[in-house]
What we know:
Blueprint: H1 11-17, H2 19-32, H3 41-52, H4 61-86, H5 109-125, H6 127-138, H7 143-150, H8 154-173
Helix pairs in contact: 2-3, 2-4, 3-4, 4-5, 4-6, 5-6, 5-8, 6-7, 6-8, 7-8
Amino acid sequence: MPDQENFTGGSDVLVESLYRELKEIARREHFRAGAPQTLQPTALINEAYVKLSKHDGFVSQRHFLACAATAIRHILIDAARARAAGKRGGTNVSFTENLNSMAAMVPDDADVMRLGDALKALSTVDPNLALLVDCRFFAGLDEQETADVLDVSVRTVRRWWVQARAWIYREMAT
Length: 174
């Protein structure tokens, strides 16, 4: 992923230049999160764009992708809340069973909402850890890509990932 450290364009230019990457992120999240048919990957990108277009202070492509990951998280959590408000119940997949294989899990709406609440709390305690979870879980970035976005070493990403998982385990267990 090329980066422009002093990016001067707006979100329109970034979305256009990173559209394929954003669509791949949205596609992964759509299937992993068990998103309804009404929230297709293209719709997810469009909703993320609406959120991101309100901000024009992106300093780099890395910064934009980090913000996009957070926007995608908010959209998926909002969709889960809306579905849960319309129907109580559904499948009961334990979200905290194995955070190491989160990509293979399809959590139910209650778990997605609990994760959203946990990440909101984590962002007040340690914003870096919350952003790391956004990048790794919601954007589906690997360790190196996450390190690039956060401008830290891969070793730091690994250390933070252990901390973030432990924090989420504790928070969601209560």
